[in-house]
Amino acid sequence: MSVRTSIVSQFEQVAKDQRKKLAPLSDDLVLLESGLDSLCFAILVARLEDALGVDPFSAAEDAEFPVTLGDFIKFYEDATT
Amino acid sequence: MPPPDLGSLWHALSAAGPLADRALWGAEASVTLGDLVGGSSLGGRLDELRGRSVLVATRDQITAALALIELDGIARRLVLGPPDLPLAQVPSVIATASVNSIVSDRASPDVGARHVDAFVTCNPRIAPAAADRRGRHRTEWILLTSGTTGPPKLVVHTLASLAGAITGGGTLARPAMWSTFYDIRRYGGLQIFLRALLGGGSLVLSSDQESTGAFLIRAADHGVTHISGTPSHWRRALMSPSARRLAPHYVRLSGEIADQAILDHLRAVYPAARIAHAFASTEAGVAFDVGDGLAGFPASLLTQPRADLEMKIEDGSLRIRSARAAARYLGSPGETLLDQDGFVDTEDMVERRGDRYYFVGRRGGIINVGGLKVHPEEVEAVINRHPQVRMSLVRSRRNPITGALVVADVVLHTEPDALTERLAALEHEILQLCRDALPPHKVPAALTFVPALAVAATGKLARHHA
Hints:
Chain A is mainly α. Chain A has helices spanning 3-17, 38-52, 56-59, 69-80.
């Protein structure tokens, strides 16, 4: 499964588990407008660490926090290559 | 001869700067402090609350702020009702604090308390009133600690202990515009509320009805210069494109462990700001600020002689003796806030590495999920209700967004290998039990089925704290 597919499926799964209405996913979607709260993002990052073996949020030294879904996917793609 | 004024909040904030230029900017309404000179938010009923024990139970922060400004020195006791106080716990708070009056911005709630005989509405539309603001009481401020099992603990402060860390506006070229992600009815937010008012500045209040992005835009529009929040608040804020609209001089973190990553991210986004992480707790008060941009705190802080503060480490946790500590708990029999030497055990565990100390977690394994505390035992009790579960261990998993998440190891009555097909369904059932019984931050983010759990010599589950 590609990084992108993993991320998209985890967004959907976390939204479902936490009973959140997920906004339509597109690369320019602002993460804070996705319908997920901080706890959802925390769970998402933990599950992606288990699935992909990386946690770029903890590893990043001077990278900027992702703002859009596109940034978020690139953040993980950069960390896994 | 009128009785002496004991130096109420109103008088202290009036002495700190011209009232007409200063305001409380709320999401719902805003008020200029000057309006309170010939007016009141309490509909002319201030005098009814003299000497009373008042529960301030408002929905909006702006009305809570106004009630606190008007009632310090007037009321005998002010109980700061947090926004998420469960209705079921209101009667015990009322009984413990001997509340006989309620100030709210809502319709009179049926609290079922016989001794409450005054219900006063607080309104951000200031009405003209000839208020006698001479304070005759050294008002007790009662803060509720959050997140523990059972009813909240009631912590007794005074304006003097709450404002003890605040040393005037000092050398600011112009009055500060403060803001905070915190609710001002929590210790961290209350500090900022008092800093703004007693430092001669203004304050932009947050609102739980507003998105992070909308709050940041509002704060930026008011030209916020000083802003505080927990590391979790800041991690969320930095994910908003609106975070870059702010140009703060001062960024403050408190309430959770500030790790190096969040300090570095804030430095990158706000290169011109002074960034400090503070250690404070409702019980111990504000202890210290660290401004060198590094996680943890210099070991030299423990040995620097300071008139108003002493710190030591005992059994691995930080102990603080301070003029800013709370006086005592109300109720909570058997629990003492200060030890016999006057120290508060913060129950925050520290570890020395080189010439710094680092916070490593809470004694007793309390898990801090984005500032909300979780007792592992409380979650284990729910998991253990499932008929297939023999025992469980709830622990913390580090997380870059909320600091920590709750995860659980579960031992079943039957070996997991024998149940392979049933495991997914069991996991779903156990999590559903948790979701039905617990708020979302207490529900395990992951369950692991394990063959056994280590039990210590004491016969208790072996918990590896932090």
